[in-house]
């Protein structure tokens, strides 16, 4: 009877392992750069072509390998960092599993050039799909050079699932930065298609952090440091002024290894509570040193999740050191509870000022403010507004109260002279004899989306517009209503052609990172249709905006860019679908009437008419309700 169980060939095993370890070009960069760090390199250069799918070239000046070691490095489970199982719980190196090079060689064409310092010649090793195609002695520099070409060339399905070059490049940048920030003593350079993206010289932690965050943020990055028997913590946290919607500048490192840890993130954010907006995040660069035996780094294929034995203790320590930093640099307002109820009463010094007399008040008991006005009316003249009252009157004139009714004649005459407001044209005023009460006129739709004649509006709390309709009272959220109007207006205008732009006298410069620049590159055409004219500087660190849509304020540009970048990173924005609608929705939200703005009758009437001329007046572009009706039955039930 034939056997149905058999062993897989090594090439297939390596491809399966590659599916876990090598998910995209960024995975190759991560593994090769970490190996270079472990090799003692002080200078690492990463060059990529076409987002890494065509070529990934990593050069380091580390210890290098001998000919035999170079060949063994591509075998599965081959490593120089582990000798027995006990070493798994005391790891201090980066890469250690011995699968990375074997996995890379299984799905790409790999060329390795390496030489040790004490050897005259190095070795060149060529491997394609796990098969060695060439091995020769060559002249090369000390260290190692890995050239990974045509990634996934033998796994077409995996290659088809790769994203665009800019998307893959952003992932490479992310992995590169994690290693660069963890090892400030190593000079690191990243090159994309021949252009330098990052070039970090070797230095200390502060220099590396500032180089990444931007020199303009140096004063807002606050140092933290503490040490206990369990953990040593150091690094930098951003002041609340640096909080942004983007979630790209939050870094945790433990024993020089990047990690993701939501629990420790909450320890930091608890201190920022009530100091920043709910949807924003501050930047932080926090480095921990923990006994390797008290953590487990091998719980995730990418080694970004780490288990701690003393999580609660570290949480309390981290939270305390951030609070201490805020107090030291006066970030949060301090309260002296002993003096909270005291009142500061100024005192006059005893010497130097002499006797201070109490001020005297002189009252003219004969003053009558109406006497001059009465005399002028009797003579047929109206007193000037700035006329001064006489200095003295007789007691008899004070008692003279005849013809007092004439004081109110002007009020009756004036009310008939006041012109009617435009919104109430054609409506006769109430007779003077009747008491005046505010009216709420019936409003409805005339079939064309306009309000019926005589509609009247009231603004409540600077947020809602109230008007009467046949079924009761309608409440309109003024910001969402204008947002819906702006959104549909932008989309309608784009169908005709690009939106009109307004040129800025002084270009607006927005600081961005190279990975942010990749996002802007992908949506630049859509932004141009909306009305933006922008370019990215040669260092790919600044977005220069020279023109903006006519509905946008220059002060909103920074907020708009932050929103676009953060929404992409949070998964809200898909660069391959609905970009125009997303940009129009974001722009409409930024340019809509703000809450708290007082509106005139004409403005409220115009907003009402334009809202109900929209295709979907009941909901904002983000799907939130715009109107609400309080029915007559609900009103009557309250009485």
Set out the fold topology.
Elements: H1 10-21, H2 25-38, E1 43-49, E2 55-60, H3 67-72, H4 100-106, E3 109-115, E4 122-128, E5 131-138, E6 143-149, H5 156-160, H6 165-182, E7 187-192, E8 195-200, H7 205-213, E9 221-227, E10 232-238, E11 250-254, E12 257-259, H8 262-272, E13 284-289, E14 295-296, E15 307-308, H9 311-328, H10 371-378, H11 395-399, H12 409-417, E16 442-443, E17 457-460, E18 464-469, E19 472-477, H13 478-496, E20 501-511, H14 514-530, E21 533-536, E22 542-549, H15 557-569, H16 579-591, H17 601-611, E23 627-631, H18 632-637
Parallel strand pairs: 1-7, 11-13, 16-18
Antiparallel strand pairs: 1-2, 2-6, 3-4, 3-6, 4-5, 7-8, 9-10, 10-13, 11-12, 14-15, 17-18, 18-19, 19-23, 20-22, 21-22
């Amino acid at each position: 009877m034939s056997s149905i169980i058999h062993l897989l060939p090594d090439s297939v095993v390596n491809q399966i392992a590659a599916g876990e370890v090598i998910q995209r070009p960024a995975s190759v960069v991560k593994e090769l750069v970490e190996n270079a760090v472990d090799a003692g390199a002080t200078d690492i250069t990463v060059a990529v072509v076409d987002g890494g799918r065509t070529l990934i070239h990593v050069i380091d000046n580390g210890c290098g390998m001998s000919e035999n070691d170079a060949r063994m490095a591509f075998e599965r489970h081959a490593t120089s960092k582990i000798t027995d199982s006990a070493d798994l719980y005391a790891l201090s190196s980066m890469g250690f599993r011995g699968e990375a090079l074997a996995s890379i060689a299984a799905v790409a064409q790999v060329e390795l050039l390496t030489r040790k310092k004490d050897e005259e010649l190095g070795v060149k090793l060529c491997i394609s799909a796990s098969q060695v195609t060439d091995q020769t002695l060559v002249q090369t520099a000390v260290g190692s050079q890995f050239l990974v070409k045509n990634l996934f060339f033998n796994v077409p399905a995996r290659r088809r699932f790769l994203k665009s070059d800019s998307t893959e490049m952003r992932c490479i940048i992310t992995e590169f930065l994690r290693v660069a920030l963890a090892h400030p003593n190593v000079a690191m350079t990243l090159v994309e298609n021949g252009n330098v993206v990052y070039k970090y010289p070797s230095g200390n932690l502060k220099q590396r952090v500032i180089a990444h965050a931007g020199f303009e943020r140096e004063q807002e990055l606050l140092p933290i440091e503490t040490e206990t028997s369990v953990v040593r913590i150091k690094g930098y946290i951003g002041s609340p002024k640096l909080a942004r919607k983007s979630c790209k500048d939050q870094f945790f490192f433990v024993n020089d290894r990047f990690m993701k840890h939501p629990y420790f993130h909450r320890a930091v954010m608890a201190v920022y509570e009530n100091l920043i907006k709910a949807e924003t995040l501050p930047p932080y660069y926090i480095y921990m040193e923990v006994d390797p035996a008290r953590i487990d780094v091998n719980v995730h294929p990418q080694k970004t999740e780490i288990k701690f034995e003393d999580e609660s203790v570290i949480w309390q320590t981290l939270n305390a050191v951030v609070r201490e930093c805020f107090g030291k640099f006066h970030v949060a307002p301090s309260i002296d509870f002993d003096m909270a109820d005291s009142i500061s009463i100024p005192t006059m010094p005893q010497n130097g000022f002499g006797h201070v007399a109490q001020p005297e008040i002189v009252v003219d008991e004969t003053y009558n403010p109406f006497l001059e006005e009465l005399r002028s009316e009797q003579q047929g003249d109206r007193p000037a507004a700035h006329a001064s009252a006489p200095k003295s009157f007789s007691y008899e004139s004070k008692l003279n109260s005849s013809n007092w009714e004439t004081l109110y004649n002007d009020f009756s005459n004036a009310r008939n002279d006041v012109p009617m407001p435009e919104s109430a044209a054609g409506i006769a005023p109430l007779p003077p004899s009747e008491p005046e009460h505010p009216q709420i006129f019936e409003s409805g739709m005339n079939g064309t989306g306009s309000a019926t004649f005589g509609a009247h509006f009231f603004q409540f709390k600077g947020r809602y517009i109230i008007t009467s309709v046949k079924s009761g009272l309608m409440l309109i959220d003024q910001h969402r209503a204008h947002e819906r109007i702006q959104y549909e207006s932008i989309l309608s205008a784009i169908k005709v052609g690009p939106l009109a732009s307004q040129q800025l006298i002084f270009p607006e410069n927005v600081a961005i990172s190279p990975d942010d620049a990749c996002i802007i590159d992908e949506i630049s055409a859509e932004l141009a249709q909306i009305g933006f004219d922008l370019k990215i500087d040669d260092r790919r660190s600044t977005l220069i905006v020279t023109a903006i849509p006519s509905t946008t304020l220059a002060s909103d540009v920074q907020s708009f860019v932050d929103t676009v970048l953060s929404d992409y990173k949070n998964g809200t924005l898909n660069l391959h679908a609905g970009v125009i609608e997303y940009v129009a929705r974001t722009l409409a939200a930024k340019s809509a009437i703000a809450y708290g703005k007082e509106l005139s009758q004409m403005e409220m009437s115009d907003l009402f008419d334009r809202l109900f001329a929209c295709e979907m007046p009941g909901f904002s572009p983000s799907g939130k309700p715009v109107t609400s009706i309080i029915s007559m039955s609900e009103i009557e039930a309250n009485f």
